[in-house]
Specification:
- The chain is an alpha+beta fold.
- It folds into 2 domains: 154 residues, GAF domain (Beta-Lactamase, 2-Layer Sandwich); 58 residues, Winged helix-like DNA-binding domain superfamily/Winged helix DNA-binding domain (Arc Repressor Mutant, subunit A, Orthogonal Bundle), CATH 1.10.10.10.
- The chain has 9 helices and 5 strands, in the order H-H-E-E-H-H-E-H-E-E-H-H-H-H.
- A 5-stranded antiparallel beta sheet has the order 2-1-5-4-3, with helices on both faces.
- The chain is globular and about 55 Å long.
- The two termini are 28 Å apart.
């Protein structure tokens, strides 16, 4: 495993737990990102091609409010980052054109935010949302901070997929034979998607898991549909 990824995961695991917080692991990821990047806050929003949109976790209540504003107003850096598949880096909101986010910019400015950096949560063609980092002072991220933020986005993407899969597995009967059968079917489905899309097995697995996440389905159900020919991953589908 990459040393940087290992370090970021260690930072996240070192954050105090918050049992009452939705998506406790991702809440810790936001808190760790805010601390590590000297930010006032960080938030994770889910945005998928299939229409799932909303704030999933935030480091603090104010940041959660700022994240939610993007969905209330229908504009903001997370929308641009998700659509462009590229980070949106705004080191000084005061220097932005007032026509870029005419409603969002004044609202976050009133909250004391002066800089925002948005990173799409993606793996190849798969996108699940955006990690937003906010600062109350203007200024660009350093080269090291930028790489660190991108690593936080990578770890968060994996955490979202893992969390969805774990929730699905916890709903299964605790039966070894059934579990083995599900795994065998999953491996077969991964191989089929790999051939359908012409991608490595790791990417095929990510596409399966992202589809399950976006549609609110269990991974084993999606795999079963692929194996049965009821679900096909078109090479041209984003």
């Amino acid at each position: 495993m990459d040393d940087r990824v290992t370090r970021i995961r260690t930072l996240i695991e070192g954050e105090p737990t918050s049992p009452g917080n939705r998506g406790s692991l991702l809440h810790r990821a936001c808190t760790a990102a805010a601390h590590t990047l000297s930010a006032s806050g960080a938030g994770i929003s889910v945005m998928t091609e299939e229409g799932a949109r909303g704030v999933y976790a935030a480091s603090d209540p104010l940041t959660e409010h700022i994240e939610e504003l993007q969905f209330v107003l229908g504009e903001g850096p997370c929308w641009d980052a998700f659509a462009s598949r590229r980070p949106v880096l705004v080191p000084d909101l005061d220097g932005e054109s007032p026509t870029r986010w005419p409603m969002y910019t004044p609202a976050v400015h009133d909250s004391g935010v002066r800089a925002v950096f948005s990173f799409p949560l993606q793996m190849g063609a798969v996108r699940l949302g955006v990690l937003d980092v906010f600062r109350k002072r203007a200024g660009s991220l350093t080269g090291e901070e930028l790489v660190t933020a991108l690593t936080f986005a990578e770890v968060t993407m994996t955490a979202l997929l893992d969390q969805h899969e774990d929730a699905a597995l916890n709903g299964l009967e605790d039966d070894l034979a059934e579990t083995v059968e599900h795994r065998a079917e999953l491996f077969q489905a991964q191989g089929m998607v790999m051939v359908q899309l012409g991608v490595p097995i790791g990417m095929a697995s990510a596409r399966l898991r992202a589809y399950a996440f976006a549609h609110g389905r269990r991974l084993d159900e999606v795999a079963r549909d692929v194996v049965a020919g009821r679900l096909h991953f078109d090479r041209d589908r984003p």
